[in-house]
Amino acid sequence: MATKLPSPPRVGMVSLGCPKNLVDSERILTQLRSDGYQMSADYAGADVVLVNTCGFLDSAKEESLEAIGEAIKENGRVIVTGCMGKEAEVIRARFPDVLAVTGAHQYEQVVEAVHAAAPANLSPYLDLVPDAGLKLTLRHYSYLKISEGCNHRCSFCIIPSLRGDLVSRRPDAILREAEKLVAAGTRELLVISQDTSAYGIDIRKEPRMWHGREVVPHMTDLARELGRIASWVRLHYVYPYPHVDQVIPLMAEGLVVPYLDIPFQHAAPSVLRTMKRPGNDAKVLQRIHEWRRICPDIAIRSTFVVGFPGETEADFQYLLDWLDEAQLDRVGAFRFEPVEGATANALPDHVPEAVKEERYARIMEKTAAISAAKLQAKVGRTLPVIIDEVGDEGATGRSQADAPEIDGQVFLRDAAHLTAGDIVSVVIEDADEHDLYGVPKP
Predict the structure, then answer these.
(1) What is Dmax (Cα atoms) for the chain?
(2) How confident is the model at residue 279 (pLDDT cuts 50, 70, 90)?
(3) Closest CA to 365 of 328, 396, 410, 320
(4) Dihedrals φ, ψ of 399, to 5°?
């Protein structure tokens, strides 16, 4: 019997305003075409119509409102985006039947709105882009971005000026993407953003329905739902806000990998204040001890900046002593470097390069020793390991304490029968400063 090809949904576009708006329209249409949609040249042939608005002048706003009204009249299924999206209340007051309103540059949101209004029927016979999208990682793990931007104003960072303030994705859109990735072979989801623990604070009053239940846009709720979808869920770039404590029981239950990536950056109070970083080092230590009480296998990785302007030898020694107490599992360190546009550049008392190098060497020696001791304590244990590569003589994988590319690895002997993406029990036989060595448990 011949295969009947699905008829793809069609999208119409009205693009108003300046050339920047035109480029935005092109980007949106390119993504939608990649997602399996066809374009419609008229209202009658469109399943949904996008109106990309201009809001620079009052006359431009009125033109945008007239275009929305025409699209509503001629088609009825309209999504509004662009500069006038900031005035959503004005648009909805005049046109309460619009399906969604998004702002300028909110490409993901407008594409998600189209997906919701007219779901695409992707077909391997028609579409060159797979349902899960194009991937640059190994098939069995995928990065899942849950928000853009950041509300912090750390003195060494220019991310907010590049990406703006926090903009969280809808939880149902994130979960839909997670399901697609898992269906395409993903075993491990790596949750990323500029500030994962801040997820949802901008849309906290906008819960969404997902498989018949309400999901609140909050890190804990999202992590719980993701844990029901993927074998492993790993959280990156988590600020140590108090509500992070709520995620630890999910790790103890096995819903989330017992791993937290927290960019502490420093521990000395004076340096943290100069960095404009949140956090109380003493309270954080108390919480780390409590996290380990609840979930003994939790692995904590972090990054630190040495040689920040004004950092004294006493500040640096404070950091080393703090690390002795915190016993973090994985640590990366960076020498401070001025970044164009960062306010830290104007701070007094820049640390000489030679001193930065000496402090960098000391912190790396300290953290390597801590890592070696913690890994040595795992010898003799049986740990779950996800396999990344398999060769003739063995395999390479990662424990739950290891994120790809940045942490250690587990090297397995007698493992040629395994396949990348397998999650297996491994008896740990040896360890060094960064890696484990073992054999699959029979």
Answers:
(1) 78
(2) low
(3) 320
(4) -80, 175
